[in-house]
Amino acid sequence: MIRVLLAEDQAMVRGALAALLALESDIDVVGAAPDGVAAWREVERLKPDVLVTDIEMPGLTGLELAQRIRRHELPVRVVIATTFARAGFLRRALDAGVGGYVLKDAPAEQLADAIRQVHRGGRAIDPQLAVDAWSEADPLNDRERQVLRLAGEGLTAGDIAAQLHLSAGTVRNYLSEAIGKLGAANRVEAYRTARQKGWL
């Protein structure tokens, strides 16, 4: 049996995924978490074979979960199930060690097949998305991405500085770099561009 943990912040989607996977004779859904922090606790407690996670969740994102699993060298494989058909997200997911990337509007059996393939040590990625992922590189570094994401949430440079334990001047420098790299007129436009391309 393949032991699967689900991490999905929408209760209805979480329940539907659990019900669909329960129909598979070789997959056992051992737990479900409503956010990234709870998912990390369950990963440590349940030690599943495969984590199926959304990208955007409260607490920790699916990508941050994948990075943490890799950093702690846990034998847990990760499949992203998301609505984001964006090459930038896929590229970041692959960089984080994710084995599978499935869109939520794909047929249900595609998720089960992805889980099996990733469990065997393979990759399961939408082919067209994979081609797109390598067409345009993400110009932002991790810190620029972090600062731009917070700016996009409406935080001032001072708020961001306090939250990230940086000086306001350093935050402004990161924002300026991100705006320049994205060819944007201001932080709002830079945030929109980065979001649209899946770089945040």
From TrEMBL:
<dbReference type="InterPro" id="IPR001789">
    <property type="entry name" value="Sig_transdc_resp-reg_receiver"/>
</dbReference>
<feature type="domain" description="HTH luxR-type">
    <location>
        <begin position="133"/>
        <end position="198"/>
    </location>
</feature>
<dbReference type="InterPro" id="IPR011006">
    <property type="entry name" value="CheY-like_superfamily"/>
</dbReference>
<dbReference type="GO" id="GO:0003677">
    <property type="term" value="F:DNA binding"/>
</dbReference>
<keyword id="KW-0238">DNA-binding</keyword>
<dbReference type="InterPro" id="IPR016032">
    <property type="entry name" value="Sig_transdc_resp-reg_C-effctor"/>
</dbReference>
<dbReference type="InterPro" id="IPR039420">
    <property type="entry name" value="WalR-like"/>
</dbReference>
<dbReference type="InterPro" id="IPR000792">
    <property type="entry name" value="Tscrpt_reg_LuxR_C"/>
</dbReference>
<keyword id="KW-0597">Phosphoprotein</keyword>
<feature type="modified residue" description="4-aspartylphosphate">
    <location>
        <position position="54"/>
    </location>
</feature>
<dbReference type="Pfam" id="PF00196">
    <property type="entry name" value="GerE"/>
</dbReference>
<protein>
    <submittedName>
        <fullName>DNA-binding response regulator</fullName>
    </submittedName>
</protein>
<feature type="domain" description="Response regulatory">
    <location>
        <begin position="3"/>
        <end position="119"/>
    </location>
</feature>
<dbReference type="Pfam" id="PF00072">
    <property type="entry name" value="Response_reg"/>
</dbReference>
